[in-house]
Design brief:
Blueprint lengths: L5 H10 L3 H11 L7 H8 L3 H10 L4 E6 L2 E6 L25 H13 L14 H14 L6 E5 L5 H8 L4 E6 L2 H14 L3 E5 L16 E4 L5 H14 L7 E6 L6 H13 L2 E12 L9 E9 L31 H11 L3 E3 L15 E3 L1 H6 L6 E5 L8 H7 L4 E7 L8 H11 L3 E7 L6 E8 L8 H10 L6 H15 L6 H11 L16 H13 L3
Parallel strand pairs: 3-4, 3-6, 4-5, 6-7, 10-11, 10-12, 12-13
Antiparallel strand pairs: 1-2, 7-9, 8-9, 13-15, 14-15
Length: 543
């Protein structure tokens, strides 16, 4: 190898023992191809800052091209750096991937067609190759047949990858992104994979039917310290036997911010978790160049002193960007909150209402946490629910959870369920027939909308399937297989076509086999039309 140019020599000296990271960039450039800086980051797992420094040190040796795809560079004399590559440590699963070519091809298609990343949820898509590697690692490190994997959020399709590699395993996905749940459900049905999806805002805990039901947990959380801790806690909450279970965590940060990494690891250590293994740069992403488009994979082993998760209301600021970021303004300001409470006159306020905006003087008003409202039935008659500050995805569930005569919910006017006619109709469809919904846009101020949901009993002339759905909605916290069975028995009796409990149970299982374990509050939105169809079928097939 020829002597490096002075600026490159200085950079290598400055990097010291980390100089091999610069050599990775040089080795990539040595193939003579055109590269954009983001492509170099993704190829080498070297942070964007160091890639940029390397290109700057090579300025006199590079040819530049500016096009529609942005800046691209290549070496004028690639042969000068032909021997820049150096041996790398063995990859833990590379030698196993050739056994899974069909799964790899399917994951290429699945990842390419998956829903786009959401900035407000800190999404950065992992590559299809990473999803496959995760599945292979899980299937070879653990005995998966007959076990259940919990994916605490799954924008990266790890559940599909794992069940493709090991069809004998089951997977449960819990996510707040309805698009991801719909996509995974459809893919699992098409491929015949045992994957079940539940809706939940993980800040409030796991659905009851998921807690303590799984053998392993996997999560790629928001990379804030609070986000990592929360998602790991949810993974622990889902383990059936924490002493034998494991939580696998994808986590990365820039090498220039070791204090942030130390803070996050300290949080995990305070939870008495053992760092059983850490594989550097195991996960690769289609973005996140600031951290080298890569993250490490941690295997966390609980101990007898590890907390078993916490389903309590948690501070909502776990994301790094968007409306849920720690720096974002959240919640109604006191004057706006006061305007809502004056209009509604509630007996119950739900969520983080300002203490500076109490109900009218003399009025008795219960304060209920959002987690409590969604977790157990309420006796409220007129409730005011604050879903500002990053909670708007819970709008339909907050309405269904309220057994009150009226539920008044404040959300940002930009929320998908209220900002246009299509979103409003979709919301009405989810809460019908048990709730009549109106929208007061621009109240209590220009940035918010007050959604008024009034409980309505089916009329005497309502069809039996409508009465059956209304029966389930009045018991939204109940397990749907049970509420459907009880409602079917009641509707059948009213029609003079009675069925017994055993018969009703069998009919519900046949009409909606995907319903087991769900309540209305964790049922993904795309399943609601199917629930209506199941109700129609149940009534039509009464003896």
């Amino acid at each position: 190898m020829i002597d490096p140019p002075p600026k490159l020599a200085d950079l290598l000296k400055e990097q010291g023992i980390n100089a091999p990271r610069v050599h990775r960039v040089l080795a990539a450039l040595a193939n003579g191809a055109w590269w954009s800086p983001p492509e170099l980051v993704r190829e080498t797992a070297v942070a964007h800052r160091l890639v940029a420094a390397t290109l700057d040190a090579l300025a006199d040796e590079l040819e530049h091209r500016q096009g529609n795809e942005g800046l691209r560079v290549r070496l004028l004399r690639p042969a000068d750096h032909a021997d820049s590559s150096a041996p790398e440590p063995a990859d833990p699963v590379a030698h196993l991937l050739d056994r899974h070519t069909e799964a790899a091809a399917e994951l290429d298609r699945l990842v390419a067609e998956a829903p786009r990343s959401r900035r407000d949820l800190d999404h950065v898509a992992a590559t299809a190759h990473t999803a496959l590697r995760r599945g292979v690692l899980l299937a070879t490190r653990y005995s998966l047949p007959g076990t259940r994997l919990l994916c605490v959020g799954d924008h990266d399709l790890t559940a599909l990858a794992t069940t493709l590699v090991c069809p004998g395993a089951e997977a449960v996905v819990v996510d707040v992104d309805e698009r991801v749940l719909d996509y995974i459900d459809q893919a699992a049905a098409r491929l015949g994979l045992p994957v079940r999806c539940h809706f939940a805002d993980l800040r409030l805990g796991l659905p009851a039917s998921v807690r303590g039901q799984c053998d392993l947990a996997f999560t790629d959380p928001p990379y804030t310290t609070e986000g990592v801790e929360l998602f790991v806690r949810r993974g622990l909450e889902g383990l059936a036997d924490p002493r034998r279970g494991r939580v696998l965590l994808a986590y990365g940060a820039s090498e220039s911010t070791p204090a942030l990494i130390a803070k996050t690891q300290s949080r995990l250590a305070r939870m008495n978790l053992v760092f059983e293994a850490v594989w550097p740069e195991f996960n690769r992403y289609l973005g996140a160049e600031a951290i080298g488009a890569a993250s490490d994979l941690y295997v966390l082993c609980p101990t007898s002193r590890t907390p078993a998760g916490d389903a309590s209301d948690t501070a909502g600021r776990i994301y790094s960007q968007g409306g849920n970021a720690k720096e974002a303004a959240g919640g109604l300001e006191a004057p706006s909150a006061a305007a809502v409470l004056r209009r509604v006159g509630p007996d119950t306020v739900v969520g983080a209402w300002s203490r500076e905006a109490p109900p009218e003087e003399g009025a008795r008003c219960a304060r209920v946490r959002l987690a409590t409202w969604l977790g157990s039935p309420s006796r409220a008659e007129r409730a005011a629910v604050d879903l500002t500050g990053g909670w708007e995805a819970l709008l339909a569930r907050a309405i269904l959870a309220g057994g009150s005569a009226e539920t008044h919910v404040v959300v940002p006017s930009g929320a998908p369920q209220v900002r246009d006619e299509a979103g409003q109709e979709a919301l009405r469809a989810m809460v019908a027939p048990g709730r009549d919904v109106r929208f007061l846009r621009g109240f209590p101020d220009s940035g918010h909308t007050l959604v008024v949901a009034r409980r309505c009993e089916p009329s005497d002339g309502a069809s039996p399937d409508v009465r059956l759905l209304a029966h389930c909605q009045d018991r939204a916290h109940g397990v749907l297989t049970s509420t459907l069975r009880e409602g079917l028995i009641a509707v059948a009796a009213s029609l003079g076509r009675p069925v017994n409990k055993k018969g009703a149970r069998g009919r519900v299982a046949a009409a909606a086999p995907w319903l087991s374990g769900h309540t209305l509050l964790d049922l993904p939105a795309h399943r609601f039309p199917a629930l209506g169809s199941a109700a129609e079928r149940l009534v039509a097939e009464l003896p």
